[in-house]
Amino acid sequence: VSSEELAKSYLARITSLNPSLNAFITIDEEKSLAEAKAADALRAAGNAGLLTGVPLAHKDIFVAEGWRSTCGSKILSNFVSPYDATVVAKCKTAGMVNLGKLNCDEFAMGSSNENSAFGAVKNPWDLTAVPGGSSGGSAAAVAARLVPVATGTDTGGSIRQPASFCGITGIKPTYGVVSRYGMVAYASSFDQGGPMAQTAEDCALLLNVMSGFDELDSTSLEREVEDYASDLNTPLNGLRIGLPKEYFADGLDNEVASAVLAAVEEYKKLGATVVEVSLPKTRMAIPTYYILAPAEASSNLSRFDGVRYGHRAAEYTDLVDMYEKSRTEGFGAEVKRRILTGAYVLSHGYYDAYYLKAQKVRRLIAEDFQKVFEVCDVIMGPAAPTAAFDLGSHTNDPLQMYLEDVYTLSPNLAGLPAMSVPAGFTSNGRPIGLQIVGNYFAEAKMLGVAHQYQ
Ligand code: GLN
Q1: ipTM for the predicted complex
Q2: Structural domains of the chain ordered from first start
Q3: For 382-441, what is each residue's pLDDT tens digit?
Q4: Which residue blocks in 225-284 are alpha helix, DSSP H?
Q5: Which residues sit with their C-beta closer than 6 Å to ligand 1?
Q6: Does the global pTM surpass 0.90?
Q7: Which residues are catalytic?
């Protein structure tokens, strides 16, 4: 088939299923078909790459030239980007066809996709369940096969937790592997883009396109180009799997625990050995993250002031009143909560007690991982303590929502690569995710580990 025919068939599926899933915020058939024609031209000229003509969609945190780029927020609901994020540009150069912008929690803050100004996303496996967040639109779109692959971002689990809730595969690479240029900043020292797909193999191919040094991102890593698909079939004989005892403690759902342990048994059959390890500061991950990420967010989100772009209040008395009204009207409740928390922990008198202390604990959490990687090659555990929960069940309790992130936050605090791989279902048919965490730059190895289980 031509790239255009392929794009058309996916667009038809999006048109019929998106109204019930709400995975897309913006669809623009004309723009998508223009990209598909460009892909066909590349193919006709003999310049096609591996992914030329393959459709994808981007989490609406990535800006894309000429596309409305909202971050799931009312404050950017009419913002059309004049430029492409590096990730978007790279996918375009590879000839991939952008089918639209995917729903997400506002500014990527959330674990259920219920914090979007464009409405909640439904889990395709059960329309009464959340898809996870914040990349819930990406996970739902891939799971419902509205797109073969999608981009996501992961600041504290936002690729892995929705991947686990929707039964797909997603990887957050080592911090610095994927450029953050044009990926609207939430907590800059944590934010990392990554691929979401049905399989580890597809994730590897998309990561090959998304990754690479970018001089437009000062934290982008300058490394030799790597082929993330190179280890997909490297035998797992002798692989040492670390099981942290803290990952199988209180609060973990029984069905999730058994599915994860059953997956580990499969790995033993593939030649792996299991070592019990300890990550004693696991319980510190939630307080540490929920101090540091809001601190960075309060600074990053100060740029939304109604002056340069985004929503501006219709009436105001002076400049300060304009800032206040625009931000009051434009931001949702969770974003305001984070800005307030962040401003508080950074303020004079509380900085040492909260922000500085959390920075120190962050370092200790990273050191714990390095000790563990002396005795194992990968760490396995649950991606989340439960399977997808019911829509609306956590919305009045922010703390309960934050507890969903207990297993996903530590790799972001340490900058380590981590992924979620489908590992079965609960008795009521909701997917369960196995989390695999590797040492810095172990992406290719981890993708191979996931591939051979799939
Ligand atoms: N759930 C976490 C939060 O709300 C993680 C979000 C993310 O990774 N973007 O901050």
Answers
A1: 0.98
A2: 3-210 (3.90.1300.10)
A3: 999 999 999 999 999 999 999 999 999 999 999 999 999 999 999 999 999 999 999 999
A4: 254-269
A5: 108-111, 134, 154-158, 186, 293, 405
A6: yes
A7: 59, 134, 158
